[in-house]
Design brief:
Chain lengths: 292, 355
């Protein structure tokens, strides 16, 4: 009877990363000290069911050579305390490192972080852009133990995804607009894109909605013509959505439309009136005169 | 890339570090005495996202944070930021020094990882665009004593929830700063300096810039081109609640202005009354003096500073701030109403197209 190798099964965890974290990591990588190859730091976030959501991170200075690794624990603890004051619900969920591969010293660092949190996640952000791709991978560790003796630590990859809050998406969109123009002069100009360019964003939204509707109608066409077998769930969903569109008689619609337009116009008129009033008061100096 | 680090030279003794005075607890020397004014603000992508995340998560509380970066001529580059813990309402001395400690600790830790250690301003979240308060001005002036170029970024999470990013960078106008230093915030002072209520704040254009690595990341992350929840919010036809809230705030502002007017009237009335009293007293004094001269006694002085203290003229600052507020609200209303009209006409077009 040989002693069994204990392989504790990891739970089905998956990791979701906010783009803030990735940007901070890249920034930290760009700012690293001269002799260092990679940057490591702590990940903060929340754990909901089996999904680990990484919301924030900070860099921890470290020193590594082929034999040993030194991590500035005091810095780590101080920063964690400071962050706790701002966001008390976030906890340590793991650590990150830049670079393309796992290093030998990673096991030791993983050990250290297991003392801080129960299932620390190790995230590797590939800043060397291997294969012309920016990859973000997450690992969780399993210890391979023979009876009581710990043999090795294995890093098991778990699915990792980037999630966008809606407003973050707007922010990232904004960063993209400065990107799509290759020439440097126009880059400066597009980078000056004003934040409140409402008409353009509205047009973009409408465009996306139109795309969506076109896709849906294409799908319906292909199902009807028999090219694609239809799925009842999708069909029901589409039917529900269409049923939500209100059927208004012409007069009803006209009435609603006119009322809304009148409201909007009246409000605009009132606000302009107020501004004119204030401007007049300023010119005539009545703002500072006593009420007679 | 190792960024220039500013030598931490002086450590100013901190006056009670309340929210307004946190700037005075900073360590950091002004790098160069530039006479140029800041004309644009350049943000890094991660600062933008951090501000958005912090302010949105902290709703409905309003929060603040510090901006770090460099000033390069006419452009202020903001490269990093961190959040302040929620302002403690009580006047506990411990709590205030804890706030200053937090700042010092954070700056020290960030210095160790090569983040620019130079404070360039602060950010705060605003509610429906209300940011023109006296505290803001006081904070600005406090910062100004240490750093010549500082900027405040105002983020409005509620307007941004409608799909457009409501972020603006403001600083005080130079002439206004000089005026307030001389404590001449009265009507005459403003008229002499030829400042109107428009000239208190200057809004600066914001640019977003990313290092090349980050640009590669962002390109990779490119959000899905399909419609999202943000689009649904943006295309939402109901603009009434937003307008209602704005108009309500506007009405409150107008009430404030009327109150300010009343203060001015009171001032004038009390000055007039004081003049009358003084005239009566002076006459009595003169009579007394003639009497005393007859009795060969010394004449009493005709002035008595202790009896008639000059009444301080009310500051016009509140008036101007409220006017600024009104202007902001009117702008917001105009933008929202025009957007609503656009959407309504779009819908009409779609209806007419025979749907």
């Amino acid at each position: 009877m040989a002693a069994t190798v204990l392989l504790p099964s990891g739970s089905n965890v998956s990791v979701k990363v906010h783009p803030v974290v990735l940007l901070s990591i890249c920034d930290a990588y760009v700012r690293r000290k001269e002799h260092q190859d990679r940057v490591i730091g702590t990940l903060l976030g929340v754990v909901v069911d089996n999904v680990i959501e990484v919301k924030n991170c900070y860099v921890v200075p470290h020193n590594e050579s082929s034999e040993q690794v030194m991590v500035d624990v005091i810095h780590h603890k101080t920063m964690f305390d400071l962050h706790q004051k701002v966001a008390p619900h976030e906890s340590i969920v793991g650590w990150f490192a830049t670079g393309s591969d796992l290093y030998n010293s990673d096991a030791l660092i993983q050990d250290f972080y297991s003392k801080e949190s129960t299932h620390p996640v190790h995230m590797v952000v590939d800043t060397t852009l291997k294969d012309n791709k920016f990859s973000v991978q997450a690992y969780t560790s399993r210890t391979l133990a023979l009876g009581d003796k710990v043999l090795a630590t294995e890093f098991v990859e778990i699915p990792c995804d980037t999630i966008f809050g809606d407003i973050e998406r707007v922010g990232v969109d904004l960063m993209l607009t400065g990107l799509n123009d290759p020439s440097p002069e126009s880059k400066k100009e597009t980078a000056n894109k004003s934040f409140s360019d409402e008409a353009e964003t509205l047009a973009a939204s409408m465009g996306r909605l139109a795309d969506l509707v076109a896709k849906a109608s294409e799908y319906v066409d292909s199902v009807v013509s028999g090219r694609v077998s239809g799925e009842p769930a999708i069909g029901r969903y589409l039917a529900d959505t269409l049923a939500l569109v209100p059927h208004l008689t012409r007069s009803d619609f006209e009435r609603l439309f006119n009322e809304s337009v009148q409201d909007a116009m009246m409000v605009t008129f009132l606000s302009d009136l107020l501004r004119a009033h204030v401007a007049l008061a300023e010119r005539l100096g009545t703002a500072a005169l006593p009420i007679v | 890339m190792v960024s220039d680090q500013v030598l931490i030279t002086k450590e100013s003794a901190s006056p009670p570090p309340t929210y307004y005075n946190m700037a005075a607890a900073l360590e950091g020397g002004a790098p160069r005495a530039h006479k140029e004014l800041v004309k644009t603000v350049q943000l890094e992508g991660q600062v933008l996202l951090k501000i958005i995340q912090h302010c949105s998560e902290a709703l409905p509380q309003l929060v603040t944070g510090q901006l770090l970066g460099l000033d390069v001529g006419q452009q202020l580059e903001v490269t990093d930021c961190f959040a302040f813990p929620a302002a403690v309402a009580d006047d506990d001395v411990e709590a205030e020094s804890a706030g200053a400690n937090y700042q010092l600790e954070m700056m020290r830790c960030l210095r160790e990882v090569n983040v620019d250690n130079n404070t360039v301003g602060w950010y705060q979240s605003a509610n429906m665009g209300t940011f023109q308060t006296v505290e803001l001005i006081e904070t600005f002036i406090n910062y100004h004593e240490n750093i010549k170029k500082c900027v405040c970024i105002i983020y409005d999470p509620q307007r941004s929830a409608r799909g457009n990013l409501a972020l603006k960078a403001i600083r005080l106008k130079e002439s206004f700063i000089e005026l307030s230093k001389e404590q001449k915030l009265t009507l005459k002072g403003f008229q002499e300096a030829r400042l109107s209520w428009r000239d208190i704040f200057v809004e600066l254009p914001i640019k977003v810039r990313n290092s090349n690595l980050v640009q590669a990341l962002v390109a990779d992350l490119m959000p899905a081109p399909t419609a999202t929840l943000a689009d649904v919010d943006r295309l939402n036809l109901s603009v009434a609640p937003f307008l209602e809230r704005n108009i309500q705030s506007l009405v409150e502002c107008v009430d404030d202005i009327v109150q300010e007017q009343q203060k001015v009237s009171m001032y004038h009335k009390s000055v007039a009354r004081q003049q009358q009293l003084y005239a009566a007293w002076l006459q009595k004094r003169r009579q007394e003096n003639t009497q005393r001269l007859q009795d060969n006694l010394e004449a009493l002085p005709e002035e008595d500073p202790t009896l008639f203290k000059p009444i301080p003229e009310p500051s016009m600052l509140d008036n101007y701030l409220v006017t600024n507020q009104i202007a902001t609200y009117c702008d917001q209303i105009n933008i929202a109403a025009s957007e609503a009209i656009q959407k309504l006409f779009l819908m009409e077009g779609m209806q007419k197209a025979g749907l």
